[in-house]
Automatic annotation (TrEMBL):
PANTHER family: L-ASPARAGINASE (PTHR10188), N(4)-(BETA-N-ACETYLGLUCOSAMINYL)-L-ASPARAGINASE (PTHR10188:SF6). Pfam families: Asparaginase_2 (PF01112). It comes from the Bacteria. It comes from Spirosoma soli. InterPro entries: Ntn_hydrolases_N, Peptidase_T2. The lineage of its organism: Bacteria, Pseudomonadati, Bacteroidota, Cytophagia, Cytophagales. This is Isoaspartyl peptidase/L-asparaginase family protein.
Length: 308
């Protein structure tokens, strides 16, 4: 049964601090991305195409911290990360610290399919993107006023912060991602982010790290994570869920609960993830106050949700 799930980030998302109009706008952004991916699957397209299109939609929506809506790094630039993985071939592509690339997820896919590499960084990744004719945008394409205010607030307190922390809790929501199962039984996952506001020293989180923020394997599941990346890297979260299913034979829901609500939480990690298994079952666990999420399957079942 073909299925897709997407997320637009997790964190401190309080119903009392979001206006009805804001909620409506966020939900519409999730619906648009869900439609973009689902329509690929409904036409018989691949899971890989579906997750790329869903994430591209989120990257082009300034509400979400990826692509156009990315937060500012300490350098005053937008340093974006993304990765994608094919569950059938176990091939993957990832990029980190790229600037001016309109759709980092498409660059990650190009790395996977058109190079012998898995992971490209910074200027080299951008050069690869130009050689493969990926769309590039000027700095002002990525400029949004509320992101700039977030940077100023973070610089005033000399802190690096999650996009949903501090004063502007509901202005854009962290990492974005998608997971899908297509009609041929192939799984895929994709994740993209602008990272942390005011991040320094070329910091990279879990998003482009295969096995930490993104993983897909036709034998088990596809996973895309969102939260404080350092904890997800240390716990190898995405791969851990697949491992529990492969080696212990537990269900998707059991694996997700153990990792997100027990292991990750006990280590101080806040966040969540989306996952789909080879049967089309969906899990969307999070240990934060909310997670921007949506899913839909071939039978028309699904939801769009924000709060816990």
């Amino acid at each position: 049964m073909y299925t897709i799930a997407i997320h637009g980030g997790s964190g401190t998302i309080n119903r009392s601090e979001i206006t009805p109009q804001q909620e409506k706008t966020y939900r519409q952004g999730l619906e648009d991305a869900l439609d973009a991916g689902y329509n690929v699957l409904a036409r018989g397209g691949s899971a890989l195409d579906a997750v790329e299109q869903a994430v591209r939609s989120l990257e082009e929506n300034e509400l979400f911290n990826a692509g156009k809506g990315s937060v500012f790094a300490a350098s005053g630039k937008h340093e974006m990360d993304a990765s994608i993985m094919c569950g059938q071939s176990l091939k993957a592509g990832a990029v980190a610290g790229v600037t001016n690339i309109r759709n980092p997820i498409s660059l990650a896919r190009a790395v996977m399919e058109q190079s012998e590499n898995v992971f490209l960084l910074g200027a080299g990744a951008e050069e690869f993107g130009r050689e493969h004719n990926l769309a590039v945008e000027p700095d002002d394409y990525f400029f949004t006023e509320h992101r700039f205010q977030q940077l100023k607030e973070a610089q005033e307190s000399n802190k690096t912060q999650l996009d949903h922390s501090a004063k502007k809790k509901n202005t854009g929501k962290g990492t974005v991602g998608a997971v899908a199962l297509d009609k041929d039984g192939n799984l895929a996952s994709a994740t993209s982010t602008g990272g942390l506001t005011n991040k320094k020293y070329g910091r990279v989180g879990d998003t482009p790290v295969i096995g930490a923020g993104t993983y897909a394997n036709n034998e088990t599941c596809a996973v895309s994570c969102t939260g404080y990346g350092e904890f997800f890297i240390r716990s190898v979260v995405a791969y851990d869920i697949s491992c529990l299913m492969e080696y212990k034979g537990v269900s998707l829901n059991e694996a997700c609960d153990l990792v997100v609500q027990d292991k990750l939480k006990n280590r101080g990690g806040e966040g969540g993830l989306i996952a789909v298994d080879k049967e089309g079952n969906v899990a969307l666990p999070f240990n934060s106050e909310g997670m921007y999420r949506a899913w839909r399957n071939e039978s028309g079942e699904g939801e769009v949700a924000i709060f816990g």
